[in-house]
Amino acid sequence: MSPTSPARLGFPITGLPREEVMRRALAMKADDADWQHGRTWSLVYRADDEHDALLKDVYQAYFAENALSATAFPSLRRMEADIVAMVLDLLGADPGRAGGTMASGGTESIFLAVKAHRDQAIAAGRPAQGLGMVLPTTAHPAFVKAGHVLGMEVHLVPVSNAFTADIDAMADAIGPGTILLGASAPCYPYGVVDPIAELGQLADDHSVGLHVDACLGGFFLSVLRRAGRPTPPFAFDVAGVTSVTTDLHKYGYGPKGTSTVLYADRALRRFQYFTQVGWPGGTLSSPTLLGTRPGGAIAAAWAAITHLGLDGYTDLFKRVMAITTQLQEGLLSIDGLALVGQPAMSVFAVGSSRHDVQWIADRLETEGWRIDRQQDPDCLHFIVNPGHDESVQPFVQSFRAAADLAPPPSGRSRPALYGQTATLRDEGDLDEQLLDLIDRQYDA
Ligand SMILES: Cc1ncc(COP(=O)(O)O)c(C=O)c1O
Fold first, then answer.
1. Is the residue at 263 inside a domain?
2. 284 shares a domain with 341
3. Residue of the CA atom closest to atom 8 of ligand 1
4. 383 shares its domain with 362
5. 176: containing domain
6. Which residues, 6+ apart, have CB-to-CB distance to 138 below 8 Å?
7. Structural domain tally of the chain?
8. Hey, whose CA ends up nearest to atom 14 of ligand 1?
9. Would you say the CB of residue 42 lies under 6 angstroms from ligand 1?
10. Residue 32: inside a domain, yes or no?
11. What is the pLDDT of residues 64-87, one digit of tens each?
């Protein structure tokens, strides 16, 4: 090992007793974000303790089961089929025509939808080279990652002044290789919903697909709409929408590792599958990217929907919206603070004309709050859940106190890091810094 190589832990020869393993595992949490007391504004979506207890029990009951095999575990096949049917129903799909599958999360779901559109185009005789998609810049990087892996061209189109997809600019970006438009309901950065109806029309006019990333909003917006709250159309009630992704492990209040990818016409779903005939291990047929799939996660996601039902989700989301309103009113009462765009639900961003918001986030972090930072424009990001009800008041108080001390905006935003509640140094090659960061994640 060179003197600069990080020290690595050797493989343990003798295992530790159960109690010691448990002690060490829990001790490792000491520096983790405090989501239990509503001090973290992202990453964890949680209904309440009673709901979590049910999910853990059901997860444990299916802890060892493997959804790779629908014949060995018909229970999991049934649950997955039920989940897909229930979410399709929630999103207003035509039960005779639509179809979908589960997946491990938003990133895999979006990947599968992009793959399905690509492989359908190739099957229809389009050359594989030069196929592409057109996305607003606010689309989740999962689309760009999918394009990269699948060898597709990705055209990112600047958003309008409202921070939503700019229809004319998207139309201009459509070229001969375009097979898919992407949109969000809502987008992660600002919680705004793209004009899905207009994009559906555009997709129809050009005979291309339209994938709506409703990983965040699929449950939330559909449930609130059924409760009578005005919400923009975004799913299968819009002509031209060919696929929608909705995560169970976000506002579906399911366990981590669960999502759905849904198609208006189940004929498109077949193009997401993979088969390999004649492998010595036996001919393979696989619905998604993964092989082995966790029975516990699927069963607990099924339990979440079955337990909450429309009434349960409605109560939860009404509470979340009340907390969101309280938080927004508190923050917007601070001089200079403003929302970025018009958020449609409980995900939003605030920026400031008077304060360096990154400085404020740094300061709040020293008090145990964790806030995601964003760039272009500099702003802070919030995802609200029921557990935030007690933390809104102290948070707004701390925010106001920090704002009183904060310097004005520096005019030079530090590159923000998605999901890491942190920023990078604004110098050198940013891609290299990011790759180093991942190296350190595993080497340290
Ligand atoms: C709108 C949106 N799409 C996609 C994703 C990716 O989902 P995942 O992290 O489950 O892969 C996220 C994650 O927050 C998201 O907010």
1. yes
2. no
3. 106
4. yes
5. 60-305
6. 159, 163, 164, 165, 184, 187, 188, 189, 190, 192, 194
7. 2
8. 188
9. no
10. no
11. 999 999 999 999 999 999 999 999
Residue 222: what residue type? S
Q: What is the pLDDT of residue 322?
A: 98
Same domain for 269 and 183: yes
Calculate ∠ Cα 421-422-427, nearest 5°.
Answer: 160
Residue with the two structure tokens 């964890």? 44
Cα–Cα distance for residue pair 57/71, rounded to 1 Å: 24
Q: Is residue 33 part of a domain?
A: no
Most ligand 1 atoms within 8 A of CB, residue of 109, 140, 163 to mutate: 140
**pLDDT band at 2, cuts 50/70/90?**
very low
Is the domain of 329 the same as that of 246?
no
93 with 238, same domain: the answer is: yes
Q: Whose alpha carbon is nearest atom 5 of ligand 1?
A: 106
Neighbours of 33 (CB within 10 A): 16
Residue 27 covered by a domain: no
Roughly how many angstroms between the first and final C-alpha of the chain, as a whole number? 15
Angle between the 49-61 and 295-332 helix axes, to the nearest 10 degrees?
Answer: 160
pLDDT digits (tens, 9 = 90+) for 333-368: 999 999 999 999 999 999 999 999 999 999 999 999
* Token pair belonging to 344: 């449609």
Are 269 and 219 in contact, with CB atoms under 8 Å apart?
Answer: no
Could you give the count of Cα atoms lying within 13 Å of 398 in the half-sphere of its Cβ? 18
Same domain, 293 and 327: no
Within this chain, do residues 300 and 357 fall inside the same structural domain, yes or no? no
**Residue 374, H or E segment:** strand 372-374
CA of 313 to the centre of ligand 1 (A): 20
- pLDDT tens, residue by residue, 240-288: 999 999 999 999 999 999 999 999 999 999 999 999 999 999 999 999 9
Peptide bond just before 12 cis, omega within 30 deg: no
Q: Is the pLDDT of residue 412 over 70?
A: no
Q: Which residue(s) pair with 379 in the sheet?
A: 374
- CB proximity list for 214: less than 8 A, separation 6 or greater: 91, 184, 185, 221, 234, 235, 244, 245, 246
What CATH number is associated with residue 339? 3.90.1150.10
